[in-house]
């Protein structure tokens, strides 16, 4: 009924609602304001009344101000005529605001990308950590029986100092490299159990959308959100059960990898220093209580037999081999395995080795720990800047020697091995002096650490980064491909590739940081 200056009725066009002129007043019938040119009477009435209600898209439960749309008609006023009026109500809402599954998929894909970035960061920390194996073995002094000259009054002239054998260092280094990719959960078993529960036992039926508590029919409808909830629930549940079984049953009753590694360091008379940061890391004290670790064939077979329990046996091997391990995961942070022998040497025979072990059982010798009265062999270390300065000087000396070799034209392989041997000897002496408190500017104090804190040097100690990435990848691939079997295959292949690359890169960096020959790392 509202007319513009040009004579156009603005509110008659439903399609152009932007030009409507709204008013707060309306009427149902009018037989007074209409002018007529004859004696007949005309009445204007509301032929159609429509109430429009629109929901707000951004705020649940709220509406825009409703408006009343009235269509008027005119008719001759007669007392016998019946006027019909139609009343209707309409509700308007945006259906896309309730269909937000694409938002969930976008968040899941973004989460997968961020989890991959976090996994790469975790792997880089493992790769770039610096590890060094400290050999506590002392050179053997034997009588020189091949000399033809008369026995000298100076006893030292008739003796030969045999160099320390390096097999124990290589053995501990190989065990350390193998433990890099040991995990707390088994991916193959994880995927097999998830597929068995969701496919064979048909627990995917719980993703069906329907009211009530029934399990529904296979033809019922499910949504992305409901399928994601079921899949992630069972995947996390199976992973949690695996972790509990590994922690409570396997490590307590079958094998304890971390404590076995500590025992291996003690057997090998080798300590481990692993720096996860430039001035922080872990130390495993593997110094043997027998003083030496070089033994015969029978003892070596016993060591290899115990490798089935990798972590604990590795620490035992370090102690018996009189070798410690230093692994730097960061320039000033890492881990240390104390493998120094309490007997001062590790090169011995079978009979003497058995005597050493018997003394340990009878408490007739010192303990394997870093302190004489302690059994604790693993530590987390925070190092001073002076340590890092000296450490970098020794490492750079080997690199500078290689550069000078290329300039002089000498044989690179021979020069590289000679420079590596010199740097390894200097590093071993420096770390031994530091642990023995012989260096004043690189001294240390001992606090109560976690005995298995050095597991942070391996994938075992960073299980959540891998497990959460695999969970997200499994859910995303299943929701995109709608196939649990194909999703499991993709996760298994991707995880296998990541594990192989991690093992390769960690081994390559271990060779550089520990100054061991790569040809002896399996």
UniProtKB/TrEMBL annotation:
The keyword Transferase belongs to this UniProt entry's keyword annotation: no
InterPro entries found in the cross-reference section: Meckelin
Transmembrane segments annotated in the record for this chain: 104-128, 184-204, 224-245, 487-511
Keywords annotated in UniProt: Membrane, Transmembrane, Transmembrane helix
GO cellular component, one term: MKS complex
Keyword presence, Transmembrane: yes
Superkingdom, taxonomy of origin: Eukaryota
Pfam family, one: Meckelin
Any Gene Ontology biological process: cilium assembly
PANTHER family xref list: MECKELIN
Annotated protein name in UniProt: Meckelin
Organism name: Strongylus vulgaris (Blood worm)
